[in-house]
Amino acid sequence: MRKTKTKTVTSTTYLRPTDLNDLQQIMAEHQGRAAVVAGATDMIPQMRAGRTLPAVLVDLCEIAELSFIREEHGSIAIGATTTMAKLASSPIIASGSPFLATAARQVGHPQTRNRATIGGNLANASPSADTAPPLLALGAAVQIMSPDGAIRDVPLHQFFHSYRVTDLGEGDVLTRITFPRPPDGAAGRFTKIGLRSASSISVASVAVMLEMEETTCRTARVAAGSVAPIPMRVFRIEELLEGHEIGETLVEECSELLRAEISPISDVRGSDKYRSYVASAVLKRQIEMAVADRRTFGA
Amino acid sequence: MPENRTRPAYRIIGKAAPRPDAWAKVFGDTAYAHDYTVPGMLCAKVLRSRHPAARVLSIDTGDAEKLPGVDAVLTAKDVPNNETATRFGQTHQVGGFEGLYRVLAEKKIRFKGEAVALVAATSEAVAEEALGLIHVEYEPLEGVFDPVEAKQAGAYQVGEDESNVICSYKVRKGDVEEGFKLADVVVEQTYRVPMVDHAYLEPESGVAWLDQDGVITIRSATQVIEHFRGIADVLGVSHNRVRIIAPMLGGGFGGKEDITVETYLALLVWKTRKPVSLTYTREESIRSHGKRHPYVMRYKTGATKAGKLVALEAELTSDAGGYVYLSPWVLLYSTVGATGPYDIPHVKVDSETVLTNNTFSSANRGFGAPQVCFACESQLDELAKQLGLSPLEIRRKNYLRTGDALATGRVLEHSVETEQTADRALEALGEPSGPSSPTERIGRGIASSMTSYGRMTFLHDTSRALVSIEMDGSVSVRCGLQDVGGGQASSLAQIAAEVLGVPMEDVTVYVGDSALTPLAGTTTATRLLYMSGNATKKAATAVRHSLVKKAADLLDVDPEELAMGDRQIYSAGDPDRAVALERVVKACAADGIPLYDVAQFNAPARELIDFQTGQGQVFPDFTFGTQAMEVSVDIETGAVKVLKIVSCYDVGQAINTLSAEGQLHGGALYGLGYGMMEEVVLDKGNTLTPSFAEYLIPSAVDVPDVKTIMIESGGGVGPFGAKGLGEPSCVPAAAAFANAVSDAIGARVCDLPVTPERILKALGRF
C-alpha cells in the first residue's frame, strides 16, 4: 500500500509522495504526464493564467529526506526542497557561502520565500532564477534521480541547456545540490538589479567568486542572470582574471567582455541595452570591491 | 499634530480620534463586498474581447447555455439599453459632455478586455468553463494605439463617430506671443506620463439579489451608490426598483467611481431571478477596468532674469482609450490646473482627449492634476536652473496668493498658503544626508500643487444628511455616503458630536444605502467631507437649535447663553446651571418638537465655462500644498533610494488629525509610485503588466516614513473651515521625486516613471 496522499483538483491529479522510493515509483508510472513541484510558486500562477495544466502534479514537500543543509566531506549539500527562507537563515550557508543567502533573501517576498525551494528555482530554469548565479559561481552540481532509480550528478553550468530547457529528462527529479566549501581566502558577491527594493524579478544579476592573493587573482568564477536565455557562467572572464594582477584596465576589459558574452532581451522590465550596461557596471564594482577588500583587510 | 492658528476651542473637531471602523479591519472582521454571501448565490464571469480592435460578426452562446449548471448567458442583444453614460449625482444636465460607453460589446470592439458576454452559473468553475463555450467570431481591425496618431485626419476610427477627438478646451489669458518677448529665459519640453492602475487591495466586486418586493438590490464595492439610476435606465425599469448598498471599501482611488460589476449583476439577477456574485480577478481588473490617463504634454515657459514667470504655453493630449467615460472632465481639470499654483500674465493652454484602442482611462486619484503638475513643476525647476535660482526661490516669486486670479479669471477668494507649505516642507528635510558610496549622488526636490476639492460647479452638486437624537440622548446620522477607507463615516460622527455636545461614541452613523440613507452624492472629487460634512453640520445645528430653545425654557435663561457638552446643556457663564441632554430630549418629544433634521447642502452653482477662452469658475475651492523629497541615486546602476519625504498641506481645519495624517501619508506614497515605478505597459492594446508581478508599486522597503505637516488656516469651504485632502495629497509627489532625481544627477528625465533605465539614459550611459 502506497503512502502517497492523493487529491484530484479539476482535471489535475495531485500526488504527495513521502519518500524517495515512492517518488521513483510515481515518476515511473506517470512518466511524461507528471510535473514536479515543491513550493509551486511559479506553477500555480502559470496554471491560473491557463498557460499549463499538468495531468499529474507531484509535490515533493512531504519527502522529509529532501529538505536539509549539511556539510559533508568538504562540501555543502542542500536538499532540493530546502526553502529560500531556510537558505537565508542557515548558519552553514552564512559561513560557507553568504552570497547564496543574499540571493535567497531577495527571492520574492516572505510568503514566497517560505514556500519557494532551491530545487524549484533551478529546475524551473528561469534566466532570472536568483540562486542560479551564486550556485554557478560556487561551482555547484545538481543530483538527478531517474525514474529507473539511477542517480547522476551534473555540473550546474551543464544543467541549463537553453531557454527553460534543462538536463532533466522525462521522469527525472532534481534531488540535491552540492558545491565544494569555498577556500578561506575566497569571497563571493551577488548583486541583483531589480526595479524595486523587494519582491521583484531581476533585470540583471551577477555573482562573482574570487580567490585573491594580494591584488592578484588566483581563481575566479563569474556568472550572470537575466542577461541570456539561461543563467550563464562566463568562462572567458574567469580566464581573463585568473593568475593576473587586477588593475583598472583589466577590470574594464572584464566589463567589456561581459557585454560581448551576454545576449539580453528587451521586455517589459528593461531594454537589452540597459541590462547589458547595468550587468557590466555591477561586475566592475564587484571586482573592484574584491580588490579593495583585500587591501583593507589583508590576506 | 497640526500647527494651530488661534482658533475656536473645539471639543472633538481637530483631535486625534481613533476610528470606530479600525479594529474590525485589524482583526479581519470587516465584511467587504466579496465577503458577503446570499443563499443560492450564482457565480458570474465576464467574457472579454481577445482583440483590441475588431468587429463582432457573430456570437453563439448555444453550447454555453447547454452546459449543466449554467443559468444565464447574456450578450448585447439581451441588454434593453446598451448604450449609456456615466452621469451620477448631478442635478444639472450638461449635454454631450458626458461619458458614453456600452454595457456589452456590439458593433466595433474598442479595447482588449471589453465585456462581450456574461455568464451566471452554479460555481466559478462552471462559469469559467461556460466562457470557453461561447463562440465569438471577430473580424480583427487595425486599431490605433497612440493618441497623437489617433487625432490625425485619416486615422483609424475607434468608434462609429467620424473623429477620435472627444473634446478640446482652450485657456486664453493675455497674449502669449507678447509674453515670451518679455522673457529672458524660455524652456520648452515634451513630457510623457504613463497609464497607471489604482492598485487597490480589493478588486471590483459585488453581490446582488431580488428583494421580497422585487427590487434589484446590489451590495457592491463602489464610490457611487447613485449609479442606481443609470442601472435602472439600462434595464428600462424605474429608478426606485434598483437599490445599491455600499459596504466598507477596500480602496477606491477613483477606480470605483465608474460602474464596475453593478450593471452586470443587475442584468443577471433580472434574468435568473436568483442572487448572483461577481468579483474580478486581478488580471481582469488591470486589463479591463479604467486607468489613469496617459498624457503627452508640450510645455513652453518663459521667465524674466529676476525669476518672474511671464508666459506659459501648454498643449495637452490625453489618451481616453476605447470609451469616453470621464475623459472630458479629467481633461478639464488638467486644463484649469495646467499653470500650477502660479501667477502668470500670459497663458495659452490647448487640450484634447482622444479615443484609442487602449484600455479605457477614467477617474484616478488626482483626476488630471498629477499629470500637469509633473510637467509644470519640471518646467519651474528647469527655469530655476538656467536662472541660477533655487527651486524654492523661483516658486516664491510666482505663487498665487489670496485675492489673485487664475488664468481662467477665477479669483482665489479663500485662503492660499502655498508659500508657507513650501518653506515648511523644505525646512523639515533637515540636514542633507551624505552619500553612502562613491557612486551615489544625493538630490532634493520640491513640488507644489493647487488641487480642487468639490465637484465642478456647473454640475450643481448637492448632498444630504439626516441627524436625529434618540430618547436617551444618543445620536444617529444617516448619510448615503460611501466610506472608501478614509474615515468618511467617522468624520461625520465627529461633526455631529461636536455640534450636539456628546462624546463621539454616542453617535452612530448609517451610510451607503441608496434606498434608506439620504442621498449624499459620490465619494469622489475630494468632495465628501466638504459636502456631507456641511450637510451633517447643518442638520445637527438645526437639531441643536430645537434642543437649546427647550433647554432655555427649562433653565429660564437666554438661549444665546447656552452651550452643549458632556451630554448636558448649560449656561456658558454659569456652568452649574445645567440640564441633562436626555431630559431636554424627552421634553421636546412630549411637546411634539421634531428631534431630527434632514439638511441639504448645495455647492455654489455656476454655468459652463467658455470653452474658447476657459474663462469662468470651475471649482468651489482649492487645496494647496508642497511635498519635498531627498533621494540618493547610484549613477552606475540608476538605482534610487528615497531617503526623506515631507508632505505639508494647508488642511484648513483637520477634523480628525489621524485621518488627515493618513491621507498625507497614503497620498505621498500613491504619488511616489507614479513617479518611481508604476506603469501599465501596453503593446498594440495588449496589456503586458496584468498582475502585480509586472505592475510594480512601491513596497514597504522602498519608502521611508513620511513626515507630515498640517497648517490650519481655517480658510476652507468645508465644515469648520476644512479643506479636502484625499486627492490633493497625492498630486505633487511624482514631480517632487523627479525634481529630486534631477537635482542628484544633473540631468532631467522627462517621462514618468523615472526608472533606473531612464536615469542611466539621461546620464548618457547608453
Blueprint (SSEs and pairs):
The complex is a heterodimer of chains A (299) and B (766).
Chain A: E1 5-9, E2 12-16, H1 20-29, E3 34-37, H2 43-48, E4 56-59, E5 69-72, E6 75-79, H3 84-89, H4 91-96, H5 98-105, H6 110-115, H7 118-123, H8 132-137, E7 141-145, E8 151-155, H9 156-159, E9 160-162, E10 165-166, E11 173-180, E12 186-193, E13 204-213, E14 216-225, E15 232-233, H10 235-241, H11 248-261, H12 272-297
Parallel strand pairs in A: 2-4, 3-4
Antiparallel strand pairs in A: 1-2, 5-6, 6-11, 7-8, 7-11, 9-10, 12-13, 13-14, 14-15
Helix pairs in contact in A: 10-11, 11-12
Chain B: H1 22-26, E1 42-48, E2 54-60, H2 62-66, E3 70-74, E4 83-86, E5 99-102, E6 108-109, E7 115-121, H3 124-132, E8 135-140, H4 147-150, E9 165-173, H5 176-181, E10 185-193, E11 205-210, E12 216-220, H6 228-235, E13 242-245, H7 262-272, E14 276-279, H8 282-288, E15 295-303, E16 309-321, H9 327-337, E17 346-355, H10 369-387, H11 391-396, H12 418-428, E18 440-453, E19 462-469, E20 475-479, H13 488-500, E21 507-511, H14 528-555, E22 562-565, E23 568-571, E24 578-580, H15 581-590, E25 596-602, E26 621-634, E27 640-650, H16 657-676, E28 682-683, E29 686-687, E30 706-711, H17 733-745, H18 756-762
Parallel strand pairs in B: 1-14, 12-13, 16-17, 20-21, 27-30
Antiparallel strand pairs in B: 1-7, 2-6, 2-8, 3-7, 4-5, 9-17, 10-15, 11-12, 11-14, 15-16, 18-26, 19-20, 19-25, 22-23, 23-24, 26-27, 28-29
What can you tell me about this protein's structure?
The complex is a heterodimer of chains A (299) and B (766). Chain A is α+β, with helices and mostly antiparallel strands and 299 residues long. Chain A has 12 helices and 15 strands. In chain A, the strands form 4 sheets. In chain A, strands 5-6-11-7-8 form a 5-stranded antiparallel beta sheet. A 4-stranded mixed beta sheet of chain A has the order 1-2-4-3, with helices on one face. In chain A, helix 10 runs antiparallel to helix 11 (248-261) and helix 11 (248-261) packs antiparallel against helix 12 (272-297). The longest helix of chain A has 26 residues, at 272-297. Chain A starts with a strand and ends with a helix. Chain B has 3 domains: 33-141 and 204-279, Aldehyde Oxidoreductase, domain 3, CATH 3.90.1170; 295-456 and 608-762, Aldehyde oxidase/xanthine dehydrogenase, molybdopterin binding domain (Aldehyde Oxidoreductase, domain 4), CATH 3.30.365.10; 462-602, Aldehyde oxidase/xanthine dehydrogenase, molybdopterin binding domain (Aldehyde Oxidoreductase, domain 4). Chain B is built from 18 helices and 30 strands. In chain B, a hairpin with a 6-residue loop joins strand 23 and strand 24 (578-580). The relative contact order of chain B is 0.14. Chain A binds chain B through residues 10, 45, 49, 109, 193, 195-201, 268-271, 273-274, 276-278, 281-282, 284-285, and chain B through 125, 283, 439, 636-639, 641, 677, 681, 688-689, 691, 693-694, 696, 698-702, 755-757, 760-761, 765-766.
